[in-house]
Amino acid sequence: MAGPDTPDLARAAEAGGADLVEIGFPFSDPLADGPVIRRAAERALAQGMRTAECLECLRAVRESVSVPLVPMTYASLLEAYGWEQFVADARAAGASSLILADVPADVRPEVRRVQLVAPTSTDERIALAARSTDGWLYLVTVAGTTGARSELSPALAPLVERTRTLTDVPLYAGFGISTQEQAAAAAELADGVVVGSAALLAAEEGPAALEQFVFQLRASLA
Predict the structure, then answer these.
(1) Catalytic pick from 33, 53, 56, 84?
(2) Pairwise CA distance, residues 23 & 174, whole Å
């Protein structure tokens, strides 16, 4: 989540082996997020992190790391800021792409972004998302919000199988992946994994803890 310590945390994630860094732009009603990310968003908002401040934070992170940076947020933030202006300013600040958790693939198609698909997505929706996605597809492994789960969702394997018959874009699995074992199991199915809540918990302990967490995750994917 964007905040004063984000550049240090991004450097730690890169040092641990992260291939890209997703940066949450806080929103007061993050419907797709579980308690850990909600708490981080509330903390960021309390620190004064509004859209302009988040963009400055993004710029500072871009100066600190070389991996791709992907802001993740919600439509209301862009609606208030201005859709075209936000996209232009985010790109200028160093964003490699964008994730909008609550905007379907057929809405605002002019906003180039990473698309999300879920086990409940029809083949038609998956194909549409694949055609319009920016670089890779984000596979939501579970229904509901983000957050750690006790085991990898059994819905991931059939979702990967269906999606691979429809597109050859890279598939990254996220939502509910928090342990080395879950990451390794997901990586056997998909092309990569996205870990949010567990990484934020590590980040709460500081950059060193985050670097070690990412390093261990990365080692499990080898």
Answers:
(1) 33
(2) 15
pLDDT at 147: 43
User: How far is Cα of residue 185 from the mean position of the Cα atoms in its chain?
Assistant: 19
Domain at 6-220: CATH architecture: Alpha-Beta Barrel (3.20)
* Catalytic entry in 5, 14, 22, 151: 22
- Report long-range pairs for 150-153 (Cβ below 8 Å, ≥24 apart): 151/182, 152/176, 152/177, 152/182, 152/185, 152/186, 153/119
- Give the number of other CB atoms < 10 A from CB of residue 130: 19
What is the Cα 20 distance to its own chain's centre?
Answer: 9
* Residue 22 annotated in active site: yes
User: 43-94, pLDDT tens digit by residue?
Assistant: 888 999 999 999 999 999 999 999 999 999 999 999 999 999 999 999 999 9
The yes-or-no answer on residue 33 being catalytic is: yes
Written as six digits, the tokens of 207 are 């950059």
Averaged over 101-117, what is the pLDDT? 95
What does the alpha-carbon distance between residue 10 and residue 12 come to, in Å, rounded to a whole number?
A: 5
Tell me the C-alpha distance between 152 and 156, whole Å.
8
**68, 58 Cβ separation under 8 angstroms:** no
